[in-house]
Design a protein that fits this description.
mainly alpha; 5 helices; two-stranded antiparallel ribbon; 165 residues
Length: 165
């Protein structure tokens, strides 16, 4: 199989599409649960509501802290990598790990809402989704931090991706 040629900008565009798919999947799941919540479960148990509120808050905070720490550690490890393709791959894995650590508490919140019907959980989900949005997506650009790729002046740098099939 012949290697696929793409620019670093195209590679990052693929990462942006993957990111948006994760966020949209979470939002669609939450919307479905909101629409059908009355028919999904019976009345909430007060002890269950309290327990799930505490668990959702704990895992949300833990996910935000863990995603931030792990992402920074992964970015720091990218500095030692010399090749552009290797740096982009390491950056992509750092971003995906960060998103996974934020997405898991999101699904816990949605399921907790499904079980309890407590709208506080949906408010917590909205906060988590705002944290999900990196600054670069808010401003409609998606670029690699300078610490990851240093001294790459030509944005049209091409590299090959090898897919085994």
């Amino acid at each position: 199989m012949e290697p696929v040629k793409m620019t670093s900008k195209e590679y990052l565009k693929g990462l942006q599409v993957l990111y948006l798919a994760l966020v949209i999947g979470t939002v669609f799941f939450a919307a479905i649960v909101l629409l059908f919540q009355d028919t999904l479960m019976g009345g909430p148990d007060n002890e269950l509501v309290d327990l799930l509120l505490i668990l959702a808050a704990f895992f949300s905070i833990a996910g935000v802290i863990a995603s931030s720490i792990v992402f920074k550690q992964r970015l720091d490890s990218c500095r030692a990598i010399t090749g552009l393709y290797d740096k982009l791959t390491a950056y992509r894995s750092a971003v995906l790990l960060r998103l996974a650590l934020l997405e898991a508490p999101s699904y816990l919140i949605i399921v907790a809402y499904m079980l309890t019907g407590n709208m506080i959980l949906m408010g917590l989900l909205v906060l988590l989704l705002i944290i999900f949005l990196p600054e670069s997506v808010i401003f409609r650009t998606y670029s690699i931090p300078r610490s990851v790729i240093s001294r790459v002046k030509n944005r049209k740098v091409k590299f090959s991706l090898h897919f085994s099939g």
